[in-house]
Design brief:
This protein folds into two domains: 31 residues, no CATH class; 336 residues, Pectate Lyase C-like (3 Solenoid), CATH 2.160.20. It is globular and about 65 Å long. The chain has four helices and 37 strands. 7% of the residues lie in helices and 49% in strands. It has a 31-stranded parallel sheet that branches. It has a two-stranded antiparallel ribbon with strand order 1-2.
Length: 475
């Protein structure tokens, strides 16, 4: 009797095996889906992760609540889940202490209702070193608190809570600037990433909280960060098809505790998040200076929507590490309350790279302490001491339906004579601010239906600008 093997996926997602007239059902594979979002240039498809309907409780691999570390038990559960085709590794309700966690493909690290995952503040719990990108430089350093490399189909989901306990790490910021050490001693001397090995307290390189690198189909959803970690909170590097959804991040208190950083990643959706940050709340990056240009991977095809930020240095920020480029970005339906700046693009003459085809629309700001909108290529970055000769290209930037009630400056756009900002459009903009709009070295400026309430009366200053179209509200 012959044997026929039909490997067919039905609408029910079943693998069907037909043998000698009998119908046998194998375990169904997870059904993969996708989300489509419209960016300024195209409709982008974001492939969503999916997981087998299997749970792996960390208590089954030896985890116990309390002060005893569960690192080994959690990582054993992740490995077992991965080896058995994937599923959910469940952190149950209770208080659990851990060090570094390393995700693997097809694993969803799920924080159940009432789960509290508390991370150790001992640097030794984040060794051995792993490959990462630290503040724009490729190197080996302490493991992030939650790390993944070269994985596909991974997730961290809630509704449980994460506690970073980063306070003991923050004092490293007071020593000689770690980024300067990396830049001067490694990048400029041409050492390859394999020789840039850190992971010592004296190096002063604090690890980020959640940091997948070179991963595809990533979901971060529904959990909260209750206390910041050592450094950036979420740092997605070289990742594609990413969804960051419904997070509540409280990262106030520490230096450089950014909320969500997208670093040389593509096809990303960030939506419905509420972020309080000790630095920038949502940031787009792509490497810094020579190292960023060497890697040359832009951050592109990004949609950020329905997010609300509080405090922090900026609501949605591009740069200053943007040497690989940033393009095709839509930021819409967001609100910034009490941030230092609202929308910000920051770079300088050492960065190179480009920022292009960026659209901001339906943005509300309240009580901004400095600039409602700032675009600058004279940002006073932490390195180098002398600016190089690689001015970035900033062009095709659109700001529409912007409503700001309270800021020091309404808008500051500062280019440089050798490479002006170009093709900037502001339309349907309402702003109340202490000082008005300032534009320096801009080629191509469209101002349409602006309503400005400026306390000092100086609605607009133009310096070395050309090709200006100004349509007043009544036109």
């Amino acid at each position: 009797m012959s044997l026929t093997l039909a490997n067919a996926r039905t609408t029910l997602g079943l693998m069907i095996l037909v043998q000698a007239g009998w119908l046998l059902l194998a375990s169904p594979p997870p059904a993969l889906g996708s989300t489509r979002v419209a960016t300024p240039l195209e409709v982008v498809t974001i492939d969503e992760p999916a997981f087998q309907d299997k749970d792996f409780d960390i208590r089954e691999t030896g985890a116990e609540p309390g002060e005893r570390s569960c690192s080994e038990a959690i990582n054993r559960a992740i490995k077992e889940c991965h080896n058995r085709g994937g599923g959910r590794v469940v952190i149950p309700s209770g208080r659990w202490k851990t060090g570094a966690i390393q995700l693997m493909s097809n694993v969803n690290l799920h924080l159940a209702e009432g789960a509290e995952l508390h991370f150790s503040d001992s640097p030794q719990d984040y060794l051995p070193v792993v490959f990462t990108r630290w503040a724009g430089f490729e190197l080996y350093n302490f493991s992030p608190l939650i790390y993944a490399k070269d994985c596909e189909n991974i997730a961290v989901t809630g509704p449980g809570r994460l506690f970073g306990h980063g306070e003991k790490w923050w004092k490293w910021k007071a020593s000689r600037d770690a980024a300067e050490v990396v830049y001067q001693d490694y990048i400029l001397n041409g050492k390859p990433p394999t020789e840039r090995v850190f992971g010592r307290v004296e190096d002063g390189l604090r690890p980020p909280f959640i940091a997948p690198i070179n991963c595809r189909r990533v979901l971060l959803e529904g959990f909260s960060v209750e206390s910041p970690g050592p450094f950036w909170t979420i740092n997605l590097t070289y990742c594609s098809s990413v969804i960051v959804r419904g997070l509540r991040i409280n990262a106030v208190g520490g230096p450089n505790t950014d909320g969500v950083n997208l670093d040389s990643s593509r096809n990303v959706l960030v939506e419905d998040c509420e972020i309080r940050s000790g630095d920038d709340c949502i940031t787009l990056k792509s490497g810094v200076n020579e190292d960023g240009r060497r890697v040359a991977r832009p951050t592109e095809n990004i949609v950020i929507r329905r997010c609300r930020t509080h405090e922090g240095h900026g609501g949605v920020v591009i740069g200053s590490e943007m040497s690989g480029g940033v393009r095709n970005v839509l930021v819409e339906d967001c609100e910034f309350v009490g941030t230092d700046n609202g929308l910000r693009i920051k770079s300088n003459k050492s960065r190179g790279g480009f920022v292009e085809d960026i659209t901001y629309r339906k943005i509300k700001m309240r009580g901004v302490k400095q600039d409602a909108i700032q675009i600058s290529v004279v940002y006073n970055a932490y390195l180098p001491d002398k600016l190089g000769d690689s001015p970035p290209l900033l062009r095709r930037l659109v700001f529409s339906e912007i409503d700001c009630q309270g800021a020091q400056y309404a808008f500051r756009g500062v280019g440089i004579a050798e490479r002006p900002l170009s093709d900037i459009t502001l339309k349907d903009v309402r702003m109340t601010a202490d000082q008005g709009m300032q534009f320096h070295n801009v080629n191509g400026l469209v101002l349409e239906r602006l309503k400005l309430n400026i306390k000092d009366g100086s609605e607009m200053t133009l310096n070395n600008c050309r090709d200006i179209v100004h349509k007043k509200p009544t036109e």
